[in-house]
Amino acid sequence: MTIEKIDRYEIKREMGRGGMATVYEAFDPRFQRIVAVKVLPREFLHDPEFRARFEREARTIAQLEHPAIVPVYDFGEDDGQPFLVMRLMTGGDLSDRLAHGPLSTEETAVILRRLGSALDAAHSQGVIHRDLKPGNILFDQYGEAYLADFGIAHIASSTQALTASGSLVGTPTYMSPEQVYGDKELDGRSDIYALGVILFQMLTGHTPYDADTPARVMMQHIMDPVPPLSDERPDLPPDFDNIINKAMAKEREERYPTGKDFSTDLSVATQSTQKSDLQAELTAVQAELQKNVEDTAVAEQPPATPPPSPPPTTGTAAPAPTSTPSQSGGIPVWVWGLLALLLIFCLAATAGVAYLALNFEGGDELVVVADTAVPEDAERQDEIATREAELALAAATEPAAIMPTTEPATEAAATAEPTTEAEADLAATRDSIAATRSSIEATREAKEGTADPGETGFVRYLNDDLDPVHGPDSGDIPHEDDDTIELVFADSSPQNFVASAYVGSPYSEAEGSWDFGYLFRQTDLDDEMRLVVISDGYWNLNNRLPDGDNILQEGGVSDLLDTDPDFYNLFELIALEDTGYFFLNGVYVGTLDLTDRPNAGDFALGTGFYSDDEQEGAATPYDEYTLWELEPIFGPDSGQLEHALDDLIKLGAAGVDVADFIADATFINPFPAAENDWDIGFGFRDDEAIYWLVIESTGDWALVARIDGPDSDEDVQTGTVDNLNLGADEENSLRLIALGDTGYLFLNDEFVDTLDLSDIQSSGDLNVITAFYADHELEGAATAYEDFTIWPLP
Known about the structure:
There is one protein chain. The protein starts with a strand and ends with a strand. 40% of the residues are buried. It is α+β, with helices and mostly antiparallel strands. Helices cover 21% and strands 29% of the residues. The protein has 4 domains: 83 residues, Phosphorylase Kinase, domain 1; 176 residues, Transferase(Phosphotransferase) domain 1 (Transferase(Phosphotransferase), domain 1, Orthogonal Bundle), CATH 1.10.510.10; 171 residues, Sandwich (Jelly Rolls); 177 residues, Exo-inulinase, domain 1 (Jelly Rolls), CATH 2.60.120.
């Protein structure tokens, strides 16, 4: 019999069927969206304990909030059949990708970084997956990986892959030894083991253990050592073997304690492999160039005379701490050797001999350049260059060292700068990245008493320097049984704005559902953008048009939303051209895509966006409902930061005095990252102290506080990014939002992390910066920037 409807969900088609569940594509008429409905067999309801366990586990799963966990929207029973409603993932699963063979180390590292973070989030709430496998790793339409079916195996306690007794939960191919033993006290390290199996499979195309029966596979997990990855992938360094062996240790105490530790080691090993591959390629080019040099008759050069030392200068910058070992030590030794060979080859050329230039971005293609006559007044320069080439060749057999310069400081960059260590070993790199601090999360505390946001909700202390265009005002929004949204319109119709309001609960969650939201950029009736929060813990962004709803984005906020009738939730929205930022109770929820409605328009706070979310006679209270229009106080400005080997940070100052702001800038890479490391960032709250926010071409980033002069630089937070553009002249857009003691970092329109700004909260200037680390610049190069703009925030 064909199923047409499950609860309110209209079935479109069957997507898949297994021993544990059947999955359907369905339409949710309430939210006007396509979803996936997973239906469990009716037989489960014969177990008298199942209903209670199903509801308990389903609620726990639905509360999991993470960008890499498939969200559960709803659950229940329909005609005696249990079901779960989830986001529909249209990009297939990991099994589909593995059907085409092993994945690259780069793709593997990116996927497992997301999965490791998702596992940590679940484990922190006491949720163990228990059945992690490629079929439960799904991809969205953008190719991002997600974990699905958290705890489903535990709910059902039965799958195709269980033993006949039904006493085990999981799939034998990915079972940890303790799962095979039937240990009921599993913890997150069981999932880490399964992730290690999946890593092996992603790199080889098959699982580490295989046998003719599930029971024999389970015994292999207990008895057999992990097959050496190097037997099948001799191209990979031993680090990959070590990572898999640690993840798949027989004793869970010997495994990685967290997914982050696992994925961090994998990322470091992958980066090391990429650098080794690049070095091997350039070494081959170097060998070819050396052969060409040996085959060329080199004219005898006169004895070289060292260049005179430059005169000493005064007022040089004070020394500052060196960067962490994870940062590259500038131009590698082998590059110096390669450049020296190129230089000698050029100098050795007599009249009529062409020279060769290496194109780093174009691989090892050699480009012939036309003959060039050497002017007589260049003879002295040739002698100096020859001596420099000899020194460079000598350096090719010794560790490179960053020597202090004696060049006078330029006025545009009179700020002391840390230097990077010349070499960094892999173990130190791993320790540095593993020390990355997790995102700062605001905490909330509801107190008994009157419905005053100061006592019963998260409090944001606002900047009084920016005048609002509406409010602050307070009141109640009465509910009416009229199928219309109840709205309180502001006195302004901005395009770019900051909106803030404390919104109370009209009644307890047990009495019924409720919602609140902002209607903005409205141009006509039912022609606006809507951001709505619903009491069941979900939110959505709706580009409402006269012909109906268009849900653009949605997600969950059950861990942030307080439904206590005495609690006021702080509801904040920043809209800046085609991007919005949504905050709830002081915590960043998500970035909103406003490209479909970039215009100015009317603004309102409302309730009753859904007809079921009102009760006649009730009212939704609100307080400090305020709207500010955003206008830049600086920019857009463009320019370039000239490189000079003077151990100074290069600054482009805005000349403003702000503490809370949005800062935007697009940086143009000065040269390819393969040629030399570079960095970009902001200096902000620059007064007697300053914050440095720096992103390196290696993918590392740091928030550094300088409170008592150059020697006081201290890392407040560090982390890594994987969405940098690294080629010459490619662009990277940086956006920083600073609000009191919290900041939010975005790179190329992707959220990176929440920043702890509690050490420096005073106002100050704001700068674009480069060459924060001394070896991150090349003489004669420049880092250009465009659209450097600053908007003050309340």
